[in-house]
Specification:
Blueprint (H helix, E strand, L loop, with lengths): L2 E5 L6 E6 L6 H5 L7 E7 H17 L3 E7 L8 H13 L7 E6 L1 H13 L5 E6 L2 H7 L4 E6 L2 E8 L4 E5 L8 H18 L1 H10 L7 H21 L14 H10 L8 H18 L6 H12 L16 H8 L12 E4 L5 E4 L4 H11 L1
Parallel strand pairs: 2-9, 3-4, 3-5, 5-6, 6-9
Antiparallel strand pairs: 1-2, 7-8, 10-11
Length: 366
Amino acid sequence: MTRTVHVPLGERAYDVRIGAELIASAGSEIAPFLARPRVAIVTDENVAARHLGALQDALRAGGVASEALTLPAGEGTKSWPQLTRVVEWLLEQKVERRDIVIALGGGVIGDLVGFAAAILRRGVRFVQIPTSLLAQVDSSVGGKTGINSAQGKNLIGAFHQPILVLADIGVLDTLSPRDFRAGYGEVMKYGLLGDAAFFDWLEQNAPRLRDDMDARAHAVAHSVAMKAGIVVRDETEQGERALLNLGHTFGHALEAATGYSDRLLHGEGVAIGCALAFELSARMGLCSQEEPSRIGAHLAEMGMPSRLSDVPGQLPDDDALIALMGQDKKVVDGKLRFILAEGIGRAFVTDEVSSDNLSAVLAASR
C-alpha cells in the first residue's frame, strides 16, 4: 500500500509517495509531469550498482528515455568540483527548464542535484528518489539543497522544491546495518522536537523497522508528514523550521571535525547532537535529567552513538569544536543558536547558552 503526504506550497506543491516497489513504477509516476519523454538521472556508484538499472527499465516501460551520470559515493561529493561536473553534464544533455532531472540516491545526491537543478537555467524541475532512510525522512523533503565547503556543512545552497518525491521503502533493505541505523537518527529527531507520542511509539517499535514493512512505512510517513507541516509553515527557515536542526549544531561540527568521512555518518552525528542538546537542556534546568537518560538508553538499544567518546579516533578539544559550531548556518549576529528542549517533544530555539555550560556538556561526553 502506497501512502501519500501532500506538501501544500501553492504553485510549488508536490506529493511525497511512500511505499514499496515505487522505483518499479517510476515510469507511470513521473510521466504525467513530462513535457517531453526524456529525463536526466544523477546518482552515485553505490546506488547505481543496485538501483539504476531498475529505474531505467521502469522509465523505459513507461515510454521515457533516460541518460545517467554516476558520481563517486560519499560526503566528499557535495563539493564545488562535483557541482560543476553535474551542471556541465546537464547542459551537455541539453536539459531545458521544462525538463526533469532525477536525483537517485541518498542525501548527498539529493542535496547536490537539487542545487544543480536550482541554478541550471535559473531553475529546472527535479524529482527526488531517495534511497536511504535518512534521505527519505529528511533531506528529500522541504527543498533545502546545497553543498559543503571547507568552512562548514551546507553553507552554499538554495531553496528549490522538488516536483515529486518517490520514497521506495523497499530499497532500504539494501542498506548496510550501519547506514540504516544512521538514518534512524533523523527519524528519532521528529519525536524529540515535537511529538512525544511518536517517540513513545519509536521506543516500542523502532527495533522492528528493519524487518517490519508496516512499521517502516508508518515511521517514514509520520516523519515526512511532520516535516511537511513545518516546511509549509516556515519554508525558508525564518522561525519554526529551525527546530528541524535539533542535534545539528553539534552534529555538523563533529562531521567537520572528522573530515566528512566514514568515521562519523550524518545521522550518527545527529544522534550524538540530539543527546548533547538534551544534556545541555538538563544542565540548564530546562528539563529533567531523566530525559537525556531516556534518550541515551534508546540510542544504546538501537546500537547508535550518543557521546563524543563513541566517535572513533581523536576529536579536537572543546574550544575547537565550539569554533566549528560558530560556522553553523544558525548563527545570528555572531551568536550561536541552539535547539534545546523543555522535555521530549518540546523543543525551542535559543541563543542564551553560556560557554561554561556548553564546555561542561562537551567535557562530560568525552
